[in-house]
Structure of Cobalt-precorrin-2 C(20)-methyltransferase:
Amino acid sequence: MSSGAESTGATTGGTPDDHGTLYVVGIGPGLPDHMTKRAKEVIESADVVIASSLYQEFLRADGTIPSEKQTDEDGVATRDDGFEQEIVRSTMGRQIELARAAFDYVREGKDVAHVSGGDPSVYGKSDLIFKMAEEEDATDIPIEIVPGLTAALGGSANVGAPLCNDFCTVSLSDKWRGWDEIEEKLRAAAISDFVIVLYNCWRNYEQAVEIVREERTDDAYVAIVNDAGREDAGRNGESQFITTLGEAADHDDKVSGMGTSLIIGNHETETWSNDDRTYLVTPRGGRDVDDF
Amino acid sequence: MSSGAESTGATTGGTPDDHGTLYVVGIGPGLPDHMTKRAKEVIESADVVIASSLYQEFLRADGTIPSEKQTDEDGVATRDDGFEQEIVRSTMGRQIELARAAFDYVREGKDVAHVSGGDPSVYGKSDLIFKMAEEEDATDIPIEIVPGLTAALGGSANVGAPLCNDFCTVSLSDKWRGWDEIEEKLRAAAISDFVIVLYNCWRNYEQAVEIVREERTDDAYVAIVNDAGREDAGRNGESQFITTLGEAADHDDKVSGMGTSLIIGNHETETWSNDDRTYLVTPRGGRDVDDF
């Protein structure tokens, strides 16, 4: 790779013609309202759709996949135009098995849509698919990532415009890495004034807030965003709450689960209220109106 | 704000009933394929659409706004169902004037869609709108941000899955801030092993690469992504190129303009090739397949 590679160029003989494609599809943070047109089209035309119960529910909400009553007990759904899709329920413990099954479907000539919430790469399923493809020597499987709106963007829009300057995302899950690595990233981001979006913060969020607090002032703004884009269909209902770094740890009742993100503003982040509500805004680089 | 505020709660009397809404709408990195359903619906139903020539072209590509021949010389477009929309061309030097005009339209009862590429907050138009609303005491204007797919996500999908661990975005534009601030962020992100996505990198990208290079090894992977999601409709055409930190500065012919992003992998980022192409992938936290 040292001399560079056009990643669109063929490396060997190309995929066999009788293969389908494995699409890893992001459906955005919530209901299909926040799904891209491309994601919707890929799911609608896939021969096999692999998705969790919650995402299946979201996808049925606007007809992206057929209703329960159009689906038989083997999971075969018949669309209004007669096209049949196999709808496979994915669950946490079966990720490897499902990736292997996806490769088999593709080899049978089927297009597979493997559904992720948000963006498939941002703490989603993409890295597993590539790891599995490597492990299984599955170089014959064409893989395409269909991007989606990640929770940072959906959550940001719900509170206003807190991401208008450089931002970073940090996952607080320490399942596959030590807390020291997470702490190092948080501290670096806090010191150098990134806006910080915390993912997987249903656990450890108080520790994360404490670390950032050591590097920033207590009056820095924090937004706690739940189930962005999901209205009442999420596990806890869509909501947003604006507080400060000094008080964020006191609001653990607002940090409810996997659908929660925390957005920690930088030293320029401010609130602005109109007659309806209060917004959180990070002006870019301290410029004022005359700079535009 | 110290005791926290539900940002959905009314603060004073609420917006006058005769007002429209100012929507700041992200249309994603490229053609309408990567626009969300919500963004499309908001633009289709707005009385006034403010967008640059390039974005107007993208929006006409799938009929989100009416064709040139359905639009008269005053910019009034008539949709197939007879609904009339005023299409306003936005240009760089007129941002303040256009924001003020948008407030006036909303006060006349019109819904306005102010169109941004990508996500409106990530180096987009949101912060200007809020700054202008503050400057003009426009507390009567309801503002809603409609999020969009930012270039980091679109570009990442085009090369594979480089953002599968903590990442940050850094704008290299030093128009409103000193280079020292940009350098501090780059260095912090490089040392603490974030995947780094560079925006506005048509200038200064070699300096940015040089800084990251001081903190990382020369064989770290870099993707240069152009016009993600735009196919041939962008200024330079959609393309992606994988190189290394040590050689990235030699490829200035690939860094073509405003539609270019650089994705700098972390120490775990690797390439993987199948029979079609080479992908860039960042496995999360060093886990292997058995961890899933």
